[in-house]
Design brief:
Layout: H1 2-9, E1 14-20, H2 25-41, E2 45-51, H3 56-61, E3 69-74, E4 77-83, H4 88-98
Parallel strand pairs: 1-2
Antiparallel strand pairs: 1-3, 3-4
Helix pairs in contact: 2-4
């Protein structure tokens, strides 16, 4: 998983990573918001979901303490991160500010 994750975030386009867990209520709330965000932004952003229970080394590498945690990457660099649920408009504004 790790090498392909690094390849994904090293791409030239913006990549939003959603660190989530199946048992997490707010993660379930965030899922349709991310889907709408992707529909709005299209090719401007890739959205990748990482299950923290199945990818614990990756979660600890990025010091994910709570879920959901969103991290925005470009060319392997972390540009922004936040834990918790954001509304679509807020998320679109943040992503567009980096594109």
């Amino acid at each position: 998983m790790k090498s392909s994750f690094n390849e994904i975030i090293k791409g030239g386009s913006l990549t939003l990573v959603d660190f989530y867990a199946d048992w997490c209520g707010p993660c379930k709330v965030l899922a349709p918001i991310l889907k709408d965000t992707k529909e709005t932004l299209g090719e401007k952003v890739k959205i990748v979901k990482i299950d923290v229970d199945k990818n614990q080394p990756l979660a600890s590498q990025y010091q994910v303490r709570g879920v959901p945690t969103l991290i925005l990457f470009k060319e392997g660099k972390q540009l922004w991160r936040q834990s918790g649920v954001l509304q679509k408009d807020e998320l679109v504004k943040i992503i567009e500010s980096y594109s």
